[in-house]
Amino acid sequence: MTEFERHAYDVVVIGAGGAGLRAAIEARQRGLRTAVVCKSLFGKAHTVMAEGGIAAAMGNVNARDNWQVHFRDTMRGGKFLNHWRMAELHAKEAPERVWELETYGALFDRTPDGKISQRNFGGHEYPRLAHVGDRTGLELIRTLQQKIVSLQQEDFKETGDYEANLKVFAEFTVTDLLKSDGRIAGAFGYWRESGRFVVFEAPAVVLATGGIGKSFKVTSNSWEYTGDGHALALRAGASLINMEFVQFHPTGMVWPPSVKGILVTESVRGDGGVLRNSEGRRFMFDYIPEVFKDKYADNEAEADRWYTDPDNNRRPPELLPRDEVARAINAEVKAGRGSPHGGVFLDVSSRLSAEEIKRRLPSMYHQFKELADVDITAEPMEVGPTCHYVMGGVEVDPDSAQSRVPGLFAAGEVAGGMHGSNRLGGNSLSDLLVFGRRAGLGAADYVAALGSRPSLSEEDVQAAARLAVLPFEGGDGETQENPYALHGELQQVMNDLVGIIRKGEEMKLALTKLDELKRRAKNVVVEGHRQYNPGWHLALDLRNMLLVSECVAKAALQRTESRGGHTRDDYPQMEADWRRKLLPCTVEDDGITVTEQPQPAMRGDLLDLFEYDELQKYFTPEELESHRARLG
Ligand code: FAD
Description:
By secondary structure, this protein is of the alpha/beta class. 37% of the residues lie in helices and 15% in strands.
């Protein structure tokens, strides 16, 4: 029997982005011995890329803002498919989490009177995003890391060992979760550098692995986003919900090809940028959906006035939720009114001075100057939709972040439910902090209540090791496959057939192709050995991407309506009946099953926060009947 490096912890947090770090801080503060594991270098998680800000109803710029308004905006943005309890906790707790970051050392931009500054973003009624220029994610990660270091210094004082209670395992990939008697018992993985295997014994695991964007061809996501946490959860027996909802951010770079998909932050529109087609028309006025007509300006004069007088004018339609803007851009390009490289024009130079643009949007200025040779202070950018975020993820209990599997928790982008069918910009960074903390707390409570620690099965450990080295063994003798080629094919299938606009026939074709890819993936072969072998890393990631892509395609085929990040050409309407249904995905024998499950009904006092007229747009007549009765 092969011997492996072994460690024992109370909780293993997989992922060192915002969610993982916040969970680890909480777990350590509650007295758990905590390991944080990440594929990338410590500090390099995807969260670093976040630009625009953290949404929290602090009311610093407009005192009318409060948690109830944030809750309403979040539910509207998600087209009422959000788990209401998650949206409630998020809206209530986000301000506290932002202020807490300041106590950890974060330096946010300020208002003239010294408060944390807040900026406008799509779908948020008031300026709500706390920010640090357009590099907010960097500051968030820097601050959380600093807090971790300070906790390690405390531990050193007491024990003489910095890593006694909180240790980071960087450049380390988890490939399997280990269970015993139906509950979590640990995790198995390898050092990316040496390829050496490691076993963690731990009664609790927090998944904080982020998203799935690398399954799509054009994406803003970093290399880490291969859906590992989603797949680990599935294989451990947890369920995923809302997987049909994938957010295509409306503004990614479209040119040159080497940078296609890189994000252009929504702050450009929040700070006054306008979208125009090749005819120079501000086309978003043509795409305001019925449900938002009373909230968005239908003419340029009113939209322009809103920047200086937001209380007496409606918002510009460029600030509609992302799904609406992405679909509108897609339609303009399809209608032949796109920019030379297949996008539309986004112009901030006509609204702000060059100096102001460089001050408010420094990364965007440099990004375009260096990558596309475009000076955004003088000319428009070319932009188009890019796969950005997955609303779907591990089904969790809103309060404790625990999945269906005892001991398995999830927070951040890998968790599902909070954002419903579409996430509002800025609501991810706040989600990471609110539910990262709750996952750490949930894990601590779980471990404290355990009678005995689960013990690992040696057989399971050896099986995980055998599975991990399969790509070196040459498949079953059929044609050998290359992981890079298969990954390229997968990305093309997802982009072309399960992308921004979907059709039943195309998704059926996608599922046939995914089956074929899954079969071929069994014959993936990698050269060389386990040290520094990116081909091997990808071969292991591919297993996860294929499983998660199947969830997306199957759930998307089953949902015969259009809502948020799921647009069907063959079912263009939003249907009130579908709002009451979730489509959990589970795995059996390596195949995905999608079932139907009722969406938990919203608590009455929260329902009362909405006008009856608005609810009529989303709810079934029977649901409204009981609401009307309560209103008296
Ligand atoms: P991440 O920060 O992605 O961290 C995932 C971690 O998991 C990483 O450490 C990774 O190494 C690790 N990991 C993954 N798989 C494994 C494995 N198998 N084994 C070990 N470790 C693993 N949201 C906002 O709210 N506001 C914004 O302004 C904003 N701007 C954005 C800009 C860009 C360009 C992008 C791409 C996204 C933006 N978002 C924004 C979204 C937001 O950044 C992400 O949703 C969020 O950072 C996800 O954080 P997370 O903690 O869930 O995961």
